[in-house]
């Protein structure tokens, strides 16, 4: 029967022995046909008991033989400890195979009789949620990347597992699957194997997709899904391969009907006993190795997701080194990493993992990169500074970047080919999801703000699983540089803020950027997006408030950046680069005798979680004006019925950054005109939320609005 197996690639060189010892299944003959047949029948009966329609149940059980061979002969797991960190990962990426997953979990003793459908998060054996087509398959590649990063840092003695994926041909042609497949081959992730179901209806499309995977550098083999010997041989070859592997299993045109009979749990339990003993023995051996490992404490901290001790002290100290006006040299990696800080930081003692090369030579902060002038006052420069510091403070931080993201964040991460995903931003996002699901690493992706539209399915998948993923999005807002903006980000911010479990940070200055970084690192219940601007807007040098600002104000999502000395007449609310413009308008209004408060709202999601009393204190009762270079959609939540918004609502403008702001009317002059108009309409003053009293002899604003 083994002769029925065909290969689309040359057989891998057996001289390349894997680093890990081979399981017993590779050294012994294939499992007896009677055992696999009995396990297949048991899985069939469990599926038939949960699905009333016979045809649907037969289609759901079409991959029962490959699944039984994998679980019985190759998959390393311990049913009594399903969250064992060094277990093999089994990812089911398609809802078509959900009943088969539940049947295998039940047969292996990971779930009890009578339990219903088990979703992601309810059991450790369900490694991935069922999301958009191709997302689970792409995230599985990220699991393999995380495994290699952890093994590079701590060694194969305690990090030595594989990733197995059960997928279908319809997912193979999705864009995210093709992008991640290309990245897996380029990164040489040889510990991922995909079991692919090919139905007669999908045969033509699958042939093209398999050819593309072969061209990308995958090892692909085709077998019959009901041939246990051929499946065993293909999986054994995948264990020896030095490439990512795919085993394409062709199923019958008419699936085998399943008789509706009760599951025979006792028989299945007896057959799985040897597998259970093998997994338990492997876990006990792993525990002994961990106990003797010289970096046991660091490994356990990383696996538990705890940040290093005293990391925040070093984090604050590094920012204090760069406090005050930043000279160009302060943005260089070596300047921001004091020798004493580097020496006191705990390390795992292993070579730096792939993706952390040595820093590039110094480059002045005001130098030009791909037509975009970055200065010391930009949030992009501060975000780069945060990467520089965190690169040493948190060895578990794994950063991947797109081509444009790497240009704007270098020389922090350099030009390492494994960390550079090129233009495959959708694949980049899918890899980050897998890294987050693996555990032990903090995934971070650097790309452009406009690329978020291509990454949205993967971002939504991370939000659905509530996984910590940090995105650095550059080119925020209109300030794309002096070459002019070829696109206008009208609706992106509003759509991202509408997505559940996602936090969007839009810092305005150095302090807010630092706080956004820390909040994103501490937030573990969903993705965090930090939008950074590569150019300094007009008046950015005066964005800092005159008086004392709240300590760590970004932690509450919004705060009063500058409160007037008299009761408010108007409240200016801005985010990101537009805070500097609002600051200019506040100063102009003060000169006119108008008492305006300035509010920064870097994170709507955190601000919405605050109690109503705090939100009322920050927003006040005076007329409110929102300023943001984006759509007004959603701003009515903070502006109220009598507020006004200054932003943009349409496409079609292209100009240098400063000129574009003027064309769209996002200027201090227009803010002043709008403020005076609103005050004239209300005709009264409003008490300060902080309880401050008005000064005597307060100047009155002009009764009529100025003409633009």
Can I get a quick summary?
The chain is α/β, with parallel strands linked by helices and 708 residues long.
Secondary-structure map with pairings?
Elements: E1 6-7, H1 24-27, H2 33-50, H3 54-60, H4 64-74, E2 89-92, H5 98-107, H6 135-154, E3 163-168, H7 169-172, H8 175-186, E4 192-198, H9 203-216, E5 219-224, H10 228-240, E6 245-250, H11 265-292, H12 296-304, H13 311-321, H14 339-344, E7 368-369, E8 372-373, H15 379-393, E9 397-401, H16 403-409, H17 425-438, E10 442-448, H18 452-465, E11 470-474, H19 492-497, E12 503-505, H20 510-522, E13 528-531, E14 559-562, E15 570-574, H21 578-592, E16 596-600, H22 604-609, H23 612-619, E17 624-627, H24 636-639, E18 644-646, H25 657-664, H26 668-682
Parallel strand pairs: 2-3, 3-4, 4-6, 5-6, 9-10, 10-11, 11-13, 12-13, 15-16, 15-17, 17-18
Antiparallel strand pairs: 1-5, 7-8, 14-16
Describe what this molecule looks like in 3D:
By secondary structure, the protein is α/β, with parallel strands linked by helices. The protein has 26 helices and 18 strands. A six-stranded mixed beta sheet has the order 1-5-6-4-3-2, sandwiched between helices. Strands 9-10-11-13-12 form a five-stranded parallel beta sheet, with helices on both faces. Strand 17 (624-627), helix 24 and strand 18 form a beta-alpha-beta unit. Helix 8 (175-186) crosses helix 17.
């Amino acid at each position: 029967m083994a002769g029925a197996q065909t290969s689309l690639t040359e057989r891998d060189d057996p001289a390349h022995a894997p680093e890990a010892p081979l399981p017993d299944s590779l050294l012994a003959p294939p499992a007896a046909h009677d055992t696999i047949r009995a396990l297949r029948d048991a899985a069939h009966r469990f599926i038939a008991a949960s699905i009333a329609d016979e045809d649907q149940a037969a289609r759901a059980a079409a991959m029962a033989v490959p699944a039984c061979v994998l679980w019985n002969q190759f998959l390393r797991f311990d049913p009594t400890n399903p969250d064992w960190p060094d277990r093999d990962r089994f990812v089911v990426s398609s809802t078509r195979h959900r009943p088969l997953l539940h049947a295998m979990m039940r047969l292996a003793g990971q779930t009890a009789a009578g339990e219903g459908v088990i979703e992601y998060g309810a059991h450790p054996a369900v490694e991935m949620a069922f999301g958009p087509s191709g997302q689970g398959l792409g995230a599985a590649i990220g699991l393999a990347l995380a495994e290699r990063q952890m093994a590079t840092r701590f060694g194969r003695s305690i990090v030595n597992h594989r990733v197995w994926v059960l997928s279908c041909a319809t997912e193979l042609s999705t864009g995210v699957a093709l992008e991640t497949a290309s990245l897996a081959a380029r990164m040489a992730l040889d510990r991922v194997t995909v079991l692919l179901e090919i139905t007669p209806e999908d045969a033509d499309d699958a042939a093209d997709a398999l050819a593309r995977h072969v061209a990308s550098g995958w090892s692909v083999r085709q077998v019959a899904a009901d041939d246990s010997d051929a499946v065993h041989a293909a999986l054994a070859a995948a264990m020896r391969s030095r490439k990512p592997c795919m085993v394409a299993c062709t199923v019958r045109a008419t699936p085998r009907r399943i008789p509706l009979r009760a599951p025979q749990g006792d028989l299945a339990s007896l057959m799985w006993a040897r597998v259970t003993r093998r997994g338990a023995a492997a876990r006990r051996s792993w525990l002994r190795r961990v106990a003797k490992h010289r970096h046991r404490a660091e490994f356990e901290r990383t696996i538990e997701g705890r940040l290093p001790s005293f990391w925040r002290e070093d984090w604050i100290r590094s920012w204090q080194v760069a406090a005050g006006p930043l000279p160009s040299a302060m943005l260089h990696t070596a300047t921001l990493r004091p020798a004493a800080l580097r020496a006191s930081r705990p390390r795992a003692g292993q070579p730096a993992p792939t993706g952390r090369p040595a820093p590039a030579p110094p480059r002045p902060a005001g130098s030009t990169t791909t037509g975009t002038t970055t200065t010391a006052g930009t949030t992009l420069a501060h975000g780069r500074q945060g990467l520089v510091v965190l690169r040493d403070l948190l060895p578990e931080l794994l950063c991947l970047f797109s081509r444009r993201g790497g240009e704007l964040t270098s020389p922090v991460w350099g030009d390492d080919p494994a960390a550079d995903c090129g233009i495959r931003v959708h694949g980049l996002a899918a890899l980050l999801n897998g890294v987050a699901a693996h555990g032990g690493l903090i995934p971070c992706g650097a790309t452009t703000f406009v690329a978020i539209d291509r990454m949205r399915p993967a971002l939504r998948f991370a939000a659905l699983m509530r996984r910590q993923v940090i995105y650095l999005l550059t080119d925020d807002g209109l300030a794309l540089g002096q070459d002019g903006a070829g696109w206008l980000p009208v609706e992106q911010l509003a759509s991202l803020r509408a997505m559940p479990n996602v936090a969007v940070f839009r810092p305005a200055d150095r302090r807010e950027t630092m706080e956004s970084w820390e909040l994103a690192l501490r937030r573990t219940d969903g993705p965090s997006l930090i939008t950074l601007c590569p150019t300094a807007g007009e008046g950015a040098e005066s964005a800092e408030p005159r008086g004392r600002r709240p300590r760590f104000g970004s932690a509450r999502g919004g705060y009063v950046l500058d409160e007037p000395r008299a009761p408010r007449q108007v409240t200016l609310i801005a985010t990101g680069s537009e805070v500097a413009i609002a600051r200019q308008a506040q100063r102009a209004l003060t000169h006119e005798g108008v008492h305006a408060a300035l509010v920064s709202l870097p994170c709507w999601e955190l601000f919405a979680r605050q109690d109503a009393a705090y939100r009322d204190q920050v927003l006040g009762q005076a007329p409110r004006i929102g300023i943001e270079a984006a759509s007004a959609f959603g701003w009515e939540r903070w502006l109220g019925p009598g507020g006004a918004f200054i932003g943009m609502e349409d496409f079609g403008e292209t100009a240098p950054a400063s000129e574009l702001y003027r064309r769209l009317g996002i200027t201090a002059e227009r803010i002043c005109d709008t403020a005076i108009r609103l005050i004239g309409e209300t005709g009264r003053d409003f008490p300060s939320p902080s309880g401050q009293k008005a000064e005597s002899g307060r100047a009155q604003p002009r009764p009529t609005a100025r003409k633009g």
